């Protein structure tokens, strides 16, 4: 029996069950708040998994009328805090010298000054439609924040063949998803910050003919002044 031939009452029950499931997932697992503050961190290699989870968000867009998964997207914001933990793990895995680690850390932290960088893995109904680099993609992506700022990316790079770094360091990477590295500017042409310093959240919006979905990172406003907020709430 196919979806089209299911009795009306059974389809209604199935739709209700799916709605309840997604509602429970949305309310039962609150994402941790994050801090955009720079500063030194005291991470070890074993901290990377926790830091990755803190900076990663995932959402799905489901057409309940057809029980079709139109979009599943997982994204990691490569913040100052995330990059520090990443370098610590990378340096340990590849047995870098102290000087090599210092140089790598300086380079990767400097990248946060000229752009907001995201690692994104995306699944859609058709793989070509889910390619954000194509002109006929089903989706456009924008950087958004609570203040109403909406910014287009300056570059979207398709990772053609994810290697060991992508697969091990971003374990949600699979052969079923398109993988991208997306960069947004930190300021607008008139000099305003693309993520307002007054915003309580920022995020990514994926929008198109099939619908729209947002990933949000809530900003922690409770950390003491001068303290990196992500480390202030560290578990």
Outline the structure in words.
It is a single chain. The chain has 235 residues and is an alpha+beta fold. It folds into two domains: 1-29; 31-232, no CATH class. Helix content is 28%, strand content 26%. A five-stranded antiparallel β-sheet has the order 1-2-3-7-6. Helix 3 (80-93) runs antiparallel to helix 4 (98-110). Residues 1-28 and 223-235 have low confidence and may be disordered.
H/E topology pattern: HHEEHHEEEEHEEEH
User: What percent of residues are in strands?
Assistant: 25-35%
Task: Figure out the total of helices.
Answer: 6
Helix content: 25-40%
Number of strands: 9
Give the neighbour order of strands across the main sheet. Answer: 1-2-3-7-6
The largest sheet, given as strand count, sense and whether it forms a barrel, is:
5 strands, antiparallel
Overall shape: it is: globular
**Distance from first to last alpha carbon:** 49 Å
Radius of gyration: 19 Å
| Average pLDDT, all residues | 83
Q: Low-confidence parts lasting 5 or more residues at pLDDT below 50?
A: 1-28, 223-235
Structural class designation: alpha+beta
Q: Provide the domain count.
A: 2
Provide a brief overview of the structure.
The chain has helices spanning 8-28, 48-54, 80-93, 98-110, 164-169, 229-232; strands spanning 56-63, 68-77, 116-124, 140-145, 150-151, 155-158, 178-184, 201-208, 211-218. With 235 residues, it is of the alpha+beta class.
């Amino acid at each position: 029996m196919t979806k089209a031939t299911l009795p009306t009452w059974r389809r209604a029950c199935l739709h209700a069950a799916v709605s309840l499931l997604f509602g429970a997932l949305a309310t039962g697992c609150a994402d941790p708040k994050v801090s955009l503050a720079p500063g030194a961190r005291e991470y070890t290699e074993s901290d990377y998994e926790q830091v990755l989870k803190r900076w990663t968000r995932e959402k799905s867009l489901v057409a309940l009328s057809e029980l079709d998964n139109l979009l599943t997207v997982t994204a990691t914001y490569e913040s100052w805090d995330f990059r520090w933990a990443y370098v610590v793990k990378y340096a340990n895995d590849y047995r870098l010298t102290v000087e090599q680690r210092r140089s790598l850390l300086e380079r990767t932290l400097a990248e946060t000054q000229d752009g907001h960088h995201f690692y994104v893995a995306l699944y859609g109904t058709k793989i070509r439609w889910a390619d954000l680099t194509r002109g006929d993609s089903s989706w456009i992506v924008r950087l958004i924040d609570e203040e109403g700022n909406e910014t287009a990316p300056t570059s979207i790079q398709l990772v053609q063949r994810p290697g060991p770094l992508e697969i091990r360091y971003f374990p949600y990477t699979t052969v079923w998803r398109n993988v991208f590295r997306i960069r947004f500017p930190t300021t607008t042409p008139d000099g305003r910050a693309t993520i307002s310093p007054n915003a309580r959240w920022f995020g990514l919006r994926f929008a198109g003919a099939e619908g729209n979905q947002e990933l949000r990172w809530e900003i922690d406003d409770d950390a003491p002044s001068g303290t990196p907020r992500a480390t202030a709430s560290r578990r």
